[in-house]
Amino acid sequence: MSISIPELLVNDGFISRSDQEKINDFSERSEMSYIKIALNFGYISRKNYERSLINAGFTFAPIREEKFDTEVLKKVELKFVNNHIALPLRIENNKVITLMSDPSNQLFIDFIKSTYNVEPEIIVANDLDITWLSHKLLGEKYVKSSVYELLRRDPTSSASTTFTSPQLIAIFILIGIVAIGLFLNFKDTSIIINVIISSFFLIAIIFKLFLALIGSRFELHQAVTKTDVRNIVEETLPVYTILLPVYKEDKLIKKLIWNLQSLDYPREQLDVKLLIEEDDDKTLQAVQNLDFPGVFEVIIVPFHMPKTKPKACNYGLHFSRGTYLTIYDAEDIPDTDQLKKVVALFAKLPEKYICIQSALNYFNRNENFLTRMFTLEYSYWFDYMLPGLDTLDIPIPLGGTSNHFKMDVLIELGAWDPFNVTEDADLGVRAYAKGYKVAIINSTTYEEANNEPINWIRQRSRWIKGYMQTYLVHMRNPAALLKKIGWRGFLGFNFFIGATSATFLVYPLLLGIFISYLVFDFSTIHTLFPDWVLFMSIFNLMVGNILMIYINMMAVFKRRYFELILFAIANPVYWLMHSAAAYMGLYQLIVNPFYWEKTNHGLSKVNNPTNVIK
Amino acid sequence: MKISKNQYLFILTLILGVYYLVIGIYLNHLGYYNRESIFYIEKTKIVFEGLGNRIKVMGLTSPLLPFYTTFIFSAINSYLAPVIASAVGTSVLFYIIARTLTKRITDDFYLYMLLALFFLHPGILYTACSGKAIYMALIFFFLFFFNLLKFYRSNTTFHVSLASICLVILIFCDYKFIWLTLFFVPLVLAITLQTLNLGEKESIFRLFISFNSPSLRRKLINKTFAIYIILFILPVASVICYKLLNLTHANDLDYFIESPYATWNVLVDKLNYDIMTTSANYQLPELSIMVSVRVIYFCPLILIAIYLFRESTYQALTILTPFAFVEFLHIKYDKLFLNYEYYLIFLILSLLCLVFKAQTIRNQFIFKVILALVVALQLYTGYIFLSKSLITDENRFITTLADRQPNTDQSETMEMADVINSLPQDAHILMDDAVSYPIVAFTGDMKKLILPYQDVFLSAIETPYSYANYILIATAKNPFTGYTQLNNRYIPLIRIINSGVNYRRVYETNNWVLYRIIATQ
């Protein structure tokens, strides 16, 4: 059959002549085959493509179990194969058995002929199956690089070792000193511990209020205005990579792709990579079943431990073309003008700014108590704390998604640490330590707030575990860190990465003591809390709680979520859930540090309309 | 070398600070003290030099923040600390206002007017040189309204939360400002109404539209409630916490405002009122209806301020809120005279309004002429209000300053303190600092004194001979005699309990008698 597939698609009315010209133009510029562009840049849906080919008499073969010859595979490069959605498997009957999604791709046929000196025998297959098999068979060097690259380049920054020997010695010495102290003089040691914890809390609370006030000034300032966005010339926009790491998100795929279609960015300049794990057939099937054209390319991440999001992102990085890069989660709804805003901001900022963090918030905030509390927390964190840190030039623990990078510097930094379960926070600190800066932008990505307590605790335990990992990694040599990031950065790092986990671990203990103080015998407590310590502790408890509650109120007030304002009062209960998660995280840090506690998405029953910015 | 506007302001502030300090120290040398500053001096001495439960003194002395500020300056000189604090604080107030002014108005005329007020206005001099904590209330009153007016313009959380924080501090500078919140309750509705995105401009029609549309009504209610929370939850929560602290440490929620051990003005206010209403030339306290008129007489600038904001109903209402506040204070505390501080807030508010709106007047020349005349008039009214004040501290300040003659108000106190200082090192004197705090303030060695903050005080009252060698008693002539247990009825009573102990008068003044305890058994 010598029919040209592009012509067939035009004849069947799935692609117009003008689109065909555009695809051909783009193909010449980008080294991608016609069919790759047609399927991945929103010209035709897979369903229609299949329909057209089947009507023309082609049959789609199941290929996953096809035999292959490693000698044949050695002669092809994954990136080339990926661009043409075609793969030579073996030589049989003096013909190269070749999988192709476009059997009329003459360039690839010529490549086969010239490489193997024999004719190809073409098996037409579904593009996703070919992609799956190509990455599985040829992706090993890339997946190994995504796991070990940072460890090889900068072993001190990798979380592959959780506790170093000096850290273990320091921890045990500290435990020993406390135990001996308690044994020799229980009262004085307890008082000293109390004072240390109380002072620490007091400083942390005041510092957080100060930061929040500094951060709240950000409200007055628009990093990028609407005029800035309007003034952007579309033709000058760079290629923008969007990584979408997903795992078992079959229910969300349709929404995700739909949300991405709404992004205000020229589609040919978008390089959207849907990163699907090799064993995740459900998601792959959901992509296959999409009944509308999508602007994204599927990348299959071959199996390799640890099975974490950063590893998938690192893998996707090998195939990315963009000048800038960002990550979105499956359920994310970014402001439609977010990418343009980022480009405008990067153009304004000095060279050393290599990352821009967008605010995160939730579309299902009014669903239940948990989503309300989560919204309060995120509003405060992204609208006040991060801008505060940014203003004071303190390392910013990046949020999980919607952080936009300059691709070249990201690669230079060694990308994400696959052994760290909060790779984003770690990367923020690593970038800062190398002298780079992170900026905050006035654009929001709406996510799905976890609405299920157990799911929430699992997600939070991963975050807190990740913070502990990040803290341990960067505190392997405190003096070196101090030298790199200065006093301000060092204190900020300790307060925001180290203290976050510590406070959640200590909080239930202190609350327990306070309840005992109220319920049981006062005099016993008085021996451990002399008047001045009690004064300080109660001040912390009352003033600290009130201030933290107030900061939360400020944040939702800024967001105009007036109906949530009173829920801020429930924060002490919400913090108890953090404590449960912190203990779970601590346990996992010791027994299973690299385990990625997967968050289930798509549980919300709330509709998530696209956040169109007019 | 050309100096920047900021440096210029800073230098002016420094000069002003030195000027205040010179006057303050000079008055101090002439013997001028007021009850408030003496109270702070005494409490600071207890905290630094006393023996016993000093944490309670530190935490429950009220007003809290002025006390802490004085506390900081006591490192320089404990007797001058209140004066230094008020001089520095008033200079800071000048700097804040001047900086705000120069940021918004380039015309130096307004800065000169401000300078004239800060250099010459008797009320400002009283604030700066008396050692009272008025400066702090004025600073945070200014910042509260400043942030509120900025919030009206920017509609940002930053300003409304800063306003709330300033309100908290203001309340902890002078608890009476808690009542200011009462008059913001209706005002917040007006503010919310204004911030809703409606086509209609007139407030009453905006209200009509908002109430008749279910979604707008919900938004109005939610937003009004949210502004209440953002503005008032911090002050309310802080007051509750502070009251709980009082409850746990002093078994009384209102200890900090009602106990003479915690605050200076409980007795002073009552005394001022009693003296005036019972004296031969009976003087009527201010009439309720007249307070607002007196305010306008004191500060005609406020009329200009209201005129400047005439186009915005809710902003004009904001400026009028302090009127309702002082009227309310007058009704609520009907047995007190309105302190000078509550007149001065109008001066500060007028300056704030000028900063915001002076540039909007088209005919600047006429406006400046009127302004200059009004400022000159205010310098005069400021003097009149002080010199005719029925409050002793205020009146004495201006007479001491004008006459430049030694002030003998505290000479009796100092005389008794000198006697106590001359007692042997190991002597212990039982005193009640609810009324005798001026004597404690001038006493050199705090370790000699047995005071109510100490745990032994109650036992010492019961059996003074076991704990003390001397007792300081308030005589029947002492105006505070009814407020202390250690008065002329105490000695006969204690004699009945233990007749084996004798009490001999060692030293006596009009208001005080120092007894020596002599065990005869």
List the helices and strands and how they pair.
The complex is a heterodimer of chains A (614) and B (521).
Chain A: H1 5-11, H2 17-30, H3 34-40, H4 46-55, H5 70-74, H6 78-84, E1 86-92, E2 95-100, H7 106-116, E3 119-124, H8 127-138, H9 140-153, H10 165-184, H11 186-216, H12 226-230, E4 240-246, H13 253-261, E5 270-277, H14 281-288, E6 297-301, H15 309-317, E7 324-327, E8 333-334, H16 338-348, E9 353-362, H17 369-392, E10 403-406, H18 407-412, H19 423-433, E11 437-447, H20 453-474, H21 478-519, H22 522-528, H23 531-558, H24 571-591
Parallel strand pairs in A: 2-3, 4-5, 4-7, 5-6, 9-11
Antiparallel strand pairs in A: 1-2, 7-10, 8-11, 9-10
Helix pairs in contact in A: 9-15, 10-11, 11-17, 11-23, 17-23, 19-20, 19-21, 20-21, 20-24, 21-24
Chain B: H1 5-29, H2 35-49, H3 54-60, H4 64-73, H5 81-104, H6 108-120, H7 122-129, H8 134-154, H9 157-173, H10 180-195, H11 203-212, H12 214-250, H13 255-258, H14 265-278, H15 290-298, H16 301-308, H17 313-332, H18 341-357, H19 364-387, H20 392-403, H21 411-421, E1 429-430, H22 433-442, E2 449-450, H23 457-462, H24 464-467, E3 470-474, H25 490-497, E4 501-508, E5 512-519
Parallel strand pairs in B: 1-2, 1-3
Antiparallel strand pairs in B: 3-5, 4-5
Provide key terms for this protein.
heterodimer, A: GMP Synthetase, Chain A, domain 3, eight-stranded mixed beta sheet, three-stranded mixed beta sheet, 56% helix, disordered C terminus, B: 521 residues, mainly alpha, five-stranded mixed beta sheet
